């Protein structure tokens, strides 16, 4: 790849690109063609040490700056990202295979939103005054210190910013490890933050697999770990962080329900199901992959869904007409094809798709199964690909119980024109991020995160501040101290 925005080395540490070719070679494969477009090297213990020690050294001075000064740098970085949106979006497309039609509006722009939002909040982070008669208590909102961010491969720019922006706004330093599958974009985030004036060491990016993530999570200098990844990885990372009594945010997987009642606007409901299953070729944690459709409208819904899904344009992700890209890797494609075979073997009715597309790259046709039952594997496990399971239901009570009958709890959606029912149903959903007559909106202003096995903590919104800072409370006595003796 010869791309103007291509990072120039594997790591970004202490304000500069750093290479160490003695680390394990990690090929970067373009999912649309299977070609190697770049190579990075996993961090060696020396690189891990450089990243952690420079972050640790830089953090105290950063925390002493005013929030307004910190925020100004973040907002400047947001402006640079927006100015360079096109080249950063092309890089995101090379990193992930996602179509440019999506990356132009959903990735660098979402990262810029986070930097702008948390940059704006930084100057208003204060404690409170609590009167106690003559005495009083005041609280101080302090940074946690050194934070580690570990990312999944589906939104490499967004994840790097969603973690970095609130961490930096609160006065922390961050060491970020992207997924080995998509190592490029976070490096650009680091480069741009420093171009915007971030002092060296405050946002370092190092590459590697789980082993490098593990070294970061267990280091005693680290105060907080924020992971976006799968539930099994989340359990391991949470346990490792717990042994060092570190703060955590866990943004993990899901198998979220999308419930469509028979009074819903069918076109909107079909649109919601498409957005909630096929955006980013289905590689979205919050996807509503269990689509419960009332039996009265099931066939009408399926007919429209199949027609619209068959209109998806699979092709060169860099062509802005393309609206459906490949799976991120060959391995992920094979995992998803395996689930499709399971769906067929379990007797689900294939409505469309159901196979690899006949073209280069790791493309799977958007797939819809109907007549799916709760006990099928495709209704229970997170597939993380373009496979929608449509299940029937008859009553509100029944569908609420079935929607909640999962270990996951990331998202839930409902389509209905009955206002009371919409709120009643969402009120009973065991999920962190919910939608009424919509699906998968994730503005930076709204908290994002899961319940149950889907995670702990929240990203985005003012909530994220609570997860990247801690409160010190100070009791101030105005009179004499009374003592027993
Ligand atoms: P993984 O859980 O496989 O990996 C996530 C990250 O953790 C990667 O950077 C990985 O490194 C790293 N890692 C793996 N093992 C360890 C370990 N023992 N210690 C520290 N770090 C480790 O997830 P994927 O990358 O496959 O992403 C897909 C998953 O992410 C899905 O389950 C999806 O639902 C979830 N996700 C959740 C989101 C949310 O906000 N809730 C958003 C997006 C995705 P490496 O891969 O390089 O080995």
From TrEMBL:
Keywords: Metal-binding, NAD, Oxidation, Oxidoreductase, Potassium. Residues 17-474 form the Aldehyde dehydrogenase domain. Coiled coil: none annotated. SUPFAM superfamilies: ALDH-like. GO terms for molecular function: betaine-aldehyde dehydrogenase (NAD+) activity; metal ion binding. Pfam families: Aldedh. One of its GO terms (biological process) is glycine betaine biosynthetic process from choline. The active site is at residue 251. Belongs to the aldehyde dehydrogenase family. This is Betaine-aldehyde dehydrogenase. It comes from Cognatishimia activa.
């Amino acid at each position: 790849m010869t791309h103007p925005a291509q990072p120039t080395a594997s790591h970004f540490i202490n304000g500069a690109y750093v290479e160490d070719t003695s680390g394990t070679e990690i090929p970067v494969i373009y999912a649309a063609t299977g070609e190697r477009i770049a190579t990075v090297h996993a961090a060696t213990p020396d690189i891990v040490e450089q990243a952690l020690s420079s972050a640790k050294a830089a953090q105290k001075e950063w925390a002493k700056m005013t929030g307004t000064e910190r925020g100004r740098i973040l907002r400047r970085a947001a402006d640079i990202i927006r100015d360079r949106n096109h080249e950063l979006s092309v890089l995101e497309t090379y990193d992930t295979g996602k179509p440019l039609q999506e990356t132009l509006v959903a990735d660098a722009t979402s990262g810029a939103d986070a930097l702008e939002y948390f940059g704006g909040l930084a100057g208003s982070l204060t404690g409170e005054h609590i009167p106690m008669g003559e005495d009083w208590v005041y609280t101080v909102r302090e940074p946690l210190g050194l934070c580690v961010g570990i990312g999944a491969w589906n939104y490499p720019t967004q994840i790097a910013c969603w973690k970095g922006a609130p961490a930096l706004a609160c006065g922390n330093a961050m060491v970020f490890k992207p997924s080995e599958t998509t190592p490029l974009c976070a490096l650009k985030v680091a480069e741009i933050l420093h171009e915007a004036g971030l002092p060296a060491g405050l946002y370092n990016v190092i590459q590697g697999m789980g082993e490098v993530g593990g070294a970061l999570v267990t280091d005693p200098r680290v105060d907080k770990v924020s992971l976006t990844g799968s539930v099994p990885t989340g359990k391991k990372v949470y346990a490792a962080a717990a042994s060092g009594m570190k703060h955590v945010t866990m943004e993990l997987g899901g198998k979220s329900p999308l419930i469509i009642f028979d009074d819903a606007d069918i076109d909107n409901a079909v649109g919601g199901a498409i957005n909630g299953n096929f955006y980013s070729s289905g590689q979205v944690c919050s996807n509503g992959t269990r689509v419960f459709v009332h039996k009265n409208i099931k066939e009408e819904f399926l007919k429209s869904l199949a027609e619209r899904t068959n209109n998806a344009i699979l092709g060169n992700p860099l062509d802005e007409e393309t609206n459906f890209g490949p799976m991120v890797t060959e391995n992920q494609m094979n995992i998803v094809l395996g689930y499709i075979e399971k769906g067929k073997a379990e007797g689900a009715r294939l409505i469309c798709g159901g196979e690899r597309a006949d073209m280069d790259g790791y493309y799977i046709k958007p797939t819809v199964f109907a007549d799916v039952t709760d006990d099928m594997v495709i209704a229970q496990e997170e597939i993380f690909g373009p496979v929608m399971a449509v299940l029937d239901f008859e009553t509100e009570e029944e569908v609420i119980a079935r929607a909640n009958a999962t270990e996951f709890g990331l998202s839930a959606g409902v389509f209905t024109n009955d206002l009371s029912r919409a709120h009643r149903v969402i009120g009973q959903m065991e999920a962190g991020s919910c939608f009424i007559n919509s699906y998968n909106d994730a503005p930076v202003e709204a908290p994002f995160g899961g319940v149950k096995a889907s995670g702990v903590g929240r990203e985005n919104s003012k909530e994220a501040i609570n997860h990247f800072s801690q409160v010190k409370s100070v009791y101030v006595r105005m009179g004499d101290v009374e003592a027993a003796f």
